Amino acid sequence: MEKELHELLASGRDQRATDLLLREEEAVYVRINDRLVQGQGVASKALMSWLFTRSIPGSSVSEGAKGLDVDQAYEWDGRCRMNLFTSQGKRCCCIRLLPQKVRSLKELGVCEALPARIHAHRGLCLLVGKTGSGKSTTLAALLTALTEEAPWHIITLEDPVEVVLTARQGLITQRELGRDFLSFEEGIRSALRQSPDLLMIGEIRDPISLRAALAAAESGTGVIATMHSLGAQGTLSRMLHMFSAAERDFVRFQIAATLNFLQSQILVPWNDGLKLDYELLLGTPAVSSIIRDGQFANLKNCILLGRRLGMKPFEEQVGASAVP
Predict the structure, then answer these.
(1) 208-234 pLDDT, tens digit each
(2) Which residues on neighbouring strands pair with residue 19, listed in sequence order?
(3) 274 has pLDDT over 70
(4) In b/e form, how buried is each residue of 81-95, taking b as 16+ CB within 10 angstroms?
(5) Is there a contact between 40 and 11 (Cβ–Cβ < 8 Å)?
(6) How far lies 313's CA from each of 147, 264, 304, 316, 317, in Å?
(7) N or C terminus of the chain with fewer C-beta within 10 Å?
(8) What's the mean per-residue pLDDT of the chain?
(9) What 3-state class would DSSP assign to 284?
(10) Confidence band for 323, pLDDT divided at 50, 70 and 90
């Protein structure tokens, strides 16, 4: 069965696909340049049964696994992330093909001053975008670049570990949900006792993990976190609305006091591929004041006025490399 899976993965990689979608006894579909097209081959019942039994100890091949939703990493001639689930009794799997090598910030067209800014100010650094916007690729490049600046101890909390990172100086400790820690809240709390210079949180999903991230940033530990959102205004609004109305003023002041930068990114068509475009908001005194006052609608104008400081609106980047 491994050979069958590896053939499907190799075929997807050869087509420069980012995702493969498998449903038992149906044609395989792949996502290329954000478009879903039929790929090569069929996801056999035997393959899907094997995937489920190897991933979920004790699951019954004959009965399947109802109500299942499991994330895990898988290594072959490369590395990928799998999400196993069921649909109307059929076993399904979505596979994200992960980058085979860590690219540089320059290659991606991302601001190369971010590592120095993180070293200087620490605080809360947010990298946001929709699913498939290249956050994992940017994050791997940023964390690797940070270890070129100084010998830091970087702790990552991931679900699952996607790109295996190598520090140029210092240490990168990669921890996986379910294997190394039980919840993001517990993982953040534990990490603060492990002498971190920087904590990377794979995804902020709820008020508990956001509250813990803000507390870590307030303590002086650098925090990089991702979220599924788009734009500075939308991201900050979403963060606040994770909390009750009674808590929002306090949270707004925490964000204003700790925000280092917020980068929101998208992939846009470029020649025969995709390129990265992004909006970058820096945590200047003016931005902190806007956040404290809750005037998020003013952030767009603040970004435009802050170009000389390194801020950047969407649709301004020129000459970025295509992102596979």
Answers:
(1) 999 999 999 999 999 999 999 999 999
(2) 31, 96
(3) yes
(4) bbebebeeeebbbbb
(5) yes
(6) 28, 10, 7, 6, 9
(7) N
(8) 91
(9) coil
(10) very low
Q: Is the pLDDT of residue 74 over 50?
A: yes
pLDDT category of residue 67 using cuts at 50, 70 and 90: low
Pair of tokens at residue 135: 């956050």
Torsion of CA 75, 131, 223, 261, to 10 degrees: 140
**Domains observed in the chain:** 2-97 (3.30.450.90), 105-309 (3.40.50.300)
Contact in structure between 98 and 81 (CB atoms under 8 Å): yes
Here the tokens at position 121 are 């100010």
Strand intervals (E) in the chain: 19-23, 26-32, 35-43, 69-75, 79-87, 90-97, 124-128, 153-158, 171-176, 198-201, 222-227, 259-270, 273-282
Give the Cα separation of 294 and 240 in Å (integer).
Answer: 10
Give the full edge-to-edge strand order of the sheet including 19-23.
Answer: 35-43, 26-32, 19-23, 90-97, 79-87, 69-75
Provide, for the chain, the percentages of residues in helix, strand and coil under a 3-state DSSP scheme, each rounded to the nearest 5. Answer: 35, 30, 35
d(Cα 310, Cα 60) in Å, to the nearest integer?
Answer: 55
Token pair, residue 216, equals: 């870590």
Residue type, 292: R
Encoded tokens for 240: 């606040």
Tokens matching residue 82: 């799998």
Reported pTM: 0.87
3-state secondary structure of 262: strand
Sequence-distant (6+) residues with CB within 8 A of 184 are 157, 177, 201, 202, 204, 205, 208, 209, 212
